Amino acid sequence: MNLVFRPARPADYSKVRTITREAYLHAGHFTADHPYLSVLDNVEHRAEHAEVWVAEASGAVVAAVTLTFAGRPYSEIAIENELEFRMLAVDPSVQGGGVGRAVVRQVIEHAQSLPAIRAISITSATFMERAHVLYESLGFQRVPSRDWYVPGEDVLLWVFRLELQPSGVPRGTRPRLGS
What we know:
single chain; 8 strands; Aminopeptidase
């Protein structure tokens, strides 16, 4: 599947909202009445205070992710010189086809193009095992010292981090032909 990774436009917000909601519900992460879904649904607010990016296949939005930096409203864990990505969602109709992996690779590539960025971080709930496998397969490492709990809930969130080398190649990885 040939993907185009780009910043979301206002015309994309409805599709981003639908994909994000469906992805989180389809995975069983939340029930339809969970309060976090209202945060996921508010794409306009996210786009105002962070960067919302989409992945397109054949002109249709099939995935979305939010990028943020230390000190910004949507940042939960980013420290100085770190890009944080959140709310990664892939349309359930294309899950399992490598779209999520391609989006994370594009996030890595984007981070490498930002001179001040030295690492990428992501928070993931302990029950999001498929995401953990994906992040670790791309070189992200757990940082238990930065794990945290959702305020007012008994939900532990794990932190994963990918340190970038000055050359822009993620530390601990080697570029492979055809990947």
